[in-house]
């Protein structure tokens, strides 16, 4: 089983430094592209590989790049979205801390493909080790001639900067990220114009996730057929999957795209801890619908999870066990989303705190039978198409699916006027 | 007034941006690093240097949860309160921190040693529950670990 993204990361989690990265073939894809390939050929190759974005939305990467207008003068930007903040998600941290040059090489190749002049790594504040490693890697890449003017003697030049954020989940939304990089509040922008046409400082800009960009050098070196062969399904490549919650071995693993939830939970995460039963899981972070034990044979790729009524999202699963209150679980999620709403559009700013408040009242024994209908109405009215960006619709995914799968728990809270779970944690 | 070192660092950032106001977040980070927090005076000083209104600088400063608009302690404790840490029992850690430090969220100990804040997912969910103190990450925590960890910070 091949693990192209993580196989060279040392077991102790230390970073692969420049010389070690070069020793395992690092920067050979960049040499190859600059010597033998036109920018458009790099884009075409990524499009043919059908690489889909690993940040949560699953948009085709080559397609995204193809919207950048070529042959226009002036700056263009390539940004690595390293603002990993989706609750339950810890996959990009592994790549950032363990193999920073793999990300840089992917960014340089992506920049070459779209003819970007400047690149940024937008890194969240909390990732201190990643910041140290990325800063070192960028400096080393400049010294070695992989960044700066006339890279490896070619006509292509690229400047790279690391930007560390100052908090807020909204920064992960690509247009909010651009506002933040411009020194503003991280509120999302109206689309169109899309960032590919008018992004950072009004110039053409591509924002890609860390895991997505880490693929580019491998695809350039090994081709699209190889990329597709790594997967169990039509969505190519491997995927970094993760599991957290009350399982025996929480962790993250690079596995073929499309393994089942059962394999992930039982073989890799070691099954549930003794005394705990699996009730459900968010398959790809806080803003994905619950799946339950009826879905254990669902293939964890974009189409498979979508067909089961959820989303692959970030591929990092959070497990709900039978000792944890589903209402309390969802309350925790809605508290997060209410707090992280940027406040720009009314349904999100008002609806999320209201949702949180209702769930809080259920947990505290003051819920009314009509509250369930009220929650359902929120799930509908804060859903896709009714808000300015995807934050509130994402927040409604775990709520609507919890109301469907764990309805007796909600009803029991109202009927017994208390949370029936012993721990009752808030 | 901004110090010479603050002005020098902000000037350095200004060389990397096409318009002055684009350095606003960097300027806030620089001043906070020197003074621990951003006072009204600092907001006005940054606004003057970047040719922005004070309201505009304050709108940015108050948006980001890691820019502090009131005084904080020498060390910042960020307790992860997101979903994996919820499942794994962060609320017990919170309770223990309240007991040891005698402060709630958003408060600073009387000796100005610690400020306690909740924080969204720290991205280390396979080692929940977790917290950060300044730049240091602590994982797989038990309430009994806390006192010894806090001892390291003066």
CATH-assigned fold name of the largest domain in chain B: Glutaredoxin
CATH topology of the largest domain in chain A: Rossmann fold
The total domain count of chain B is: 2
- What string, H for helix and E for strand, traces the elements of chain A in order? HHHHEHHEHEHEHHEEHEEHEHHHHH
| Oligomeric status | heterodimer
Radius of gyration of chain B: 18 Å
Q: Mean of the pLDDT scores of chain A?
A: 96
Q: Tally the helices of chain A: what do you get?
A: 17
Q: Largest inter-chain interface?
A: A-B, 57 and 43 residues
Radius of gyration of chain A: 22 Å
Report on the structure:
The complex is a heterodimer of chains A (426) and B (154). Chain A is of the alpha/beta class and 426 residues long. Chain A folds into 3 domains: 18-229, 3-Layer(aba) Sandwich (Rossmann fold); 238-321, Ubiquitin-like (UB roll) (Roll), CATH 3.10.20; 326-416, NADH-ubiquinone oxidoreductase 51kDa subunit, iron-sulphur binding domain (de novo design (two linked rop proteins), Up-down Bundle). Helices cover 42% and strands 12% of the residues of chain A. In chain A, the strands form 2 sheets. In chain A, strands 6-5-9-7-8 form a 5-stranded mixed beta sheet, sandwiched between helices. In chain A, strands 3-2-1-4 form a 4-stranded parallel beta sheet, with helices on both faces. In chain A, helix 7 (128-143) links the parallel strand 2 (118-123) and strand 3 (159-164). Chain A is globular, with a radius of gyration of 22 Å. The two termini of chain A are 42 Å apart. The relative contact order of chain A is 0.12. Chain B has 154 residues and is an alpha+beta fold. Chain B folds into 2 domains: 4-61, Arc Repressor Mutant, subunit A (Orthogonal Bundle); 75-151, Glutaredoxin. In chain B, 42% of the residues lie in helices and 12% in strands. Chain B has 7 helices and 4 strands; from the N terminus they run ααααβααβββα. In chain B, strands 2-1-3-4 form a 4-stranded mixed beta sheet, covered by helices on one side. The longest helix of chain B is centred in the first third of the chain and has 12 residues, at 24-35. The radius of gyration of chain B is 18 Å and the shape is elongated. The interface between A and B is large, with 57 and 43 residues. Chain A: It comes from Chitinophaga eiseniae. Chain A: This is NADH-quinone oxidoreductase subunit F. Chain A: NDH-1 shuttles electrons from NADH, via FMN and iron-sulfur (Fe-S) centers, to quinones in the respiratory chain.
